[in-house]
Inverse folding.
């Protein structure tokens, strides 16, 4: 039985991702064709043997709740422990960072009642496949108060600490003025011993559209794919029962990641194609990220475009962004060909 | 227990010996189909999509894979508080082991299972066929026609009719006679192996049939004639749509190829009638810059670096650079080595085609090759010899 409680702080709002998080929480932004951000950290916890996971969502958590459900797809619908969803009683005014005490305080009972002695606190916008047990081992060997998970000197804003310390920090927050676990880890002047655990594999911090786009393209690199989707540490997600993807006689597809249920009749190159996407005959889709159920008509040309869910690009439309500044079509957008006069 | 209107009994004990090595260690209903499914997914999905939530699955031959595949039925939404899916293997009684000696006999031995739901109707299904059908419409038809037993039938080409169990009916689709594989068929309405019975009469006739020592205890051969001899009203329910018995290597291959038609008879992409299956939960497929994929179905977890043309590729398959796969069915986790060629073949689960090997039927032959480990060993010997 794991000694760790898992906490996913999904309250953080990332301004840079606004275009793809208008109607959903950051935790439920689609990624890699069939996943949502939260799948990665939640699967990390499941694969590391964590039995009890608490999710703290911010507003707009309907899509997140719909995705997670009872936790069955992650094998987290348990009689003992399992998955807990802790919506806010109220939204604290202060600026928040990962492990917000004002939010955790609202469900302090969960921490007090759980039998686990350590807590792993994570955010929902870092995509990685980390062994949390190893981070805990490092934490114990070096006798840190808080261990921060880092990747090539970049903080992944995931932390391991003793549960009793977390409870103390929450209860003393008014006096200490610390606002979150991340805040304690970052501040230099205090007596807590802050250490790091270097996660050697791939990690993607999603803090802007550009980062989202570039990390999506990283998936086309074999080594990244293998590090994120190792067969021993699978990434679980909500099952959709889509059929296999269908390629037609006119399809030309190279260097792409394609999820199930897609129907591809056009040309697709260097792109991430999600579940149930349709790409019509004679269309050219290059360097794009196409989210689930979006439809691209016939004879379209799309380059450096991120199509959110349920977007429709009608026949003959041409759209072009750049690598630094990919064009984003928001969820549900319909693009028709401009009528020239 | 709450009374159920209709309970389904799914016969899944068939060996499917004409599928050779594919059914050496699994029952026919567990054979992979369509890039991600197993044959039984179609009947189980039909049940759940038709609102039938109580399904007994009768297993006998090599049930291990099938049992663990079905589990508690969650994949088909059949993990229900009252009813749901139950796997019903043969069992021993105080005096003897009761192996299922025929389709009717299998149901006879599970009358207690049916009784606990006290249903009005029993739907008997076979787990060997690929089709989509709304059983609730057939049940309505059965009820409206005041039938004792209704058998779903499909028109088959006249020249093939002698391969099927044929129902001879009058113009109102009342069944007058059942002909098992008639040399000179009088009708081309073939039984699809789908029956709806009034439970009270079925129960009665199962008991009569059970004590008849001359009976083979088969629904088509014994039970239906028994109903007819007693002058019961039997109706044929004409079904239009795709239906295929995938009993041979060739027909299994053909049914897979059928999915690749521009407008396939069986549409897997219809969201209003999804085919559910145990999800392998693998990442999306990856098509490299050396891949060429045309007219194919490819499932998640595949890595394609070679050419794929007119083929059905299951989850976790790896097709290496320079390899060519054409008119083939590649089952889960198989590997097609560098520059290997596979044409008009079925490659079973976990089989690895070595680098540079060619597997294809002889020129002019319309055979379909079922690849085996022995065949690969022999071909390698031939190459090096």
């Amino acid at each position: 039985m794991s000694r760790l409680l898992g906490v996913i702080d999904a309250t953080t709002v990332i301004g840079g991702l606004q275009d793809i998080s208008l109607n959903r929480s950051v935790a439920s932004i689609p990624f890699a064709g069939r996943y949502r951000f939260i799948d990665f950290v939640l699967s990390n916890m499941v694969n590391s043997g964590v039995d009890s996971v608490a999710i703290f969502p911010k507003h707009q958590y309907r899509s997140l709740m719909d995705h997670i459900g009872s936790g069955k797809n992650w094998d987290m619908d348990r009689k003992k422990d399992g998955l807990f969803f802790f919506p806010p009683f109220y939204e604290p005014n202060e600026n928040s960072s990962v492990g917000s005490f004002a939010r955790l305080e609202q469900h302090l009972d969960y921490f007090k009642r759980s039998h686990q002695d350590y807590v792993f606190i994570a955010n929902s916008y870092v995509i990685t496949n980390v062994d949390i047990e190893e981070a805990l081992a490092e934490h114990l060997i070096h006798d840190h108060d808080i261990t921060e998970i880092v990747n090539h000197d970049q903080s992944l804003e995931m932390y391991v600490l003793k549960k009793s310390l977390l409870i103390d920090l929450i209860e003393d927050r008014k006096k200490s003025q610390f606002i979150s676990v991340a805040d304690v880890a970052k501040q230099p002047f205090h007596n807590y011993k802050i250490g790091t655990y270097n996660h050697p594999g791939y990690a993607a911090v999603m803090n802007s559209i550009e980062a989202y786009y570039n990390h999506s393209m990283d998936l086309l690199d074999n080594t990244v794919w293998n590090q994120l989707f190792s067969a021993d540490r699978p990434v679980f997600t909500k099952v959709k029962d889509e059929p296999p993807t269908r390629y037609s006689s006119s399809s030309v597809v190279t260097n792409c990641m394609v999820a199930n249920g897609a129907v591809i009749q056009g040309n697709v190159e260097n792109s991430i194609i999600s579940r149930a996407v349709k790409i019509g005959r004679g269309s050219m889709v290059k360097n794009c990220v196409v989210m689930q159920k979006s439809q691209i008509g016939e004879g379209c040309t799309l380059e450096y475009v991120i199509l959110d869910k349920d977007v429709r690009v009608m026949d003959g439309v041409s759209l072009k962004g750049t690598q630094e500044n990919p064009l984003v079509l928001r969820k549900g957008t319909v693009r028709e060909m401009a009528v020239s006069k | 227990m709450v009374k159920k209107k209709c309970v389904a009994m799914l016969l899944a004990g068939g060996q499917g010996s004409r599928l050779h090595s594919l059914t050496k260690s699994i029952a026919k209903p567990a054979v992979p189909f369509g890039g991600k499914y197993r044959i039984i997914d179609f009947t189980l999905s039909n049940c759940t999509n038709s609102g039938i939530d109580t399904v007994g699955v009768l297993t006998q031959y090599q049930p291990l894979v099938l049992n663990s595949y079905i589990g508690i039925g969650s994949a088909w939404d059949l993990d229900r508080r009252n009813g749901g899916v139950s796997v019903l293997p043969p069992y021993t009684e105080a005096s003897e082991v009761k192996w299922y000696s025929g389709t009717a006999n299998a149901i006879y031995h599970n009358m207690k299972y049916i009784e606990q739901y006290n249903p009005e109707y029993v739907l008997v299904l076979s787990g060997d066929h690929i089709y989509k059908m709304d059983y609730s419409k057939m049940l309505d038809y059965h009820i409206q026609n005041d039938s004792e037993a209704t058998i779903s039938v499909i028109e088959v080409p006249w020249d093939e009719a002698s391969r099927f169990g044929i129902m001879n009916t009058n113009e109102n689709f009342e069944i007058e006679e059942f002909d098992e594989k008639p040399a000179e068929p009088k009708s081309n309405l073939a039984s699809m192996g789908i029956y709806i019975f009034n439970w009270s009469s079925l129960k009665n006739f199962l008991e009569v049939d059970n004590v008849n020592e001359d009976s083979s205890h088969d629904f088509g051969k014994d039970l239906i004639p028994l109903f007819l001899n007693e002058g019961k009203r039997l109706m044929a329910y004409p079904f239009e749509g795709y239906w295929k018995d995938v009993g041979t290597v060739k027909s299994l291959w053909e049914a897979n190829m059928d999915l690749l038609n521009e407008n396939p008879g069986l549409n897997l992409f219809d969201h209003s009638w999804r085919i559910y299956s145990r999800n392998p939960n693998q990442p999306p497929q990856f098509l490299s810059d050396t891949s060429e994929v045309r007219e194919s179905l490819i499932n998640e977890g595949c890595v394609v670096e070679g050419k794929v043309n007119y083929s059905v590729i299951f989850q976790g398959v790896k097709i290496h650079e320079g390899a060519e796969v054409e008119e083939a069915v590649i089952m889960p986790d198989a590997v097609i080595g560098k520059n290997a060629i596979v044409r008009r073949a079925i490659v079973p689960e976990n089989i690895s085609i070595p680098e540079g090997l060619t597997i294809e039927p002889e020129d002019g032959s319309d055979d379909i090759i079922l690849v085996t480990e022995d065949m690969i060993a022999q071909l390698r010997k031939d190459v090096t010899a």
About this structure: The CA atoms of residues 11 and 58 of chain A lie 4 Å apart. Residues 246-340 of chain A form a domain with the UDP N-Acetylglucosamine Acyltransferase; domain 1 fold (CATH 2.160.10.10).
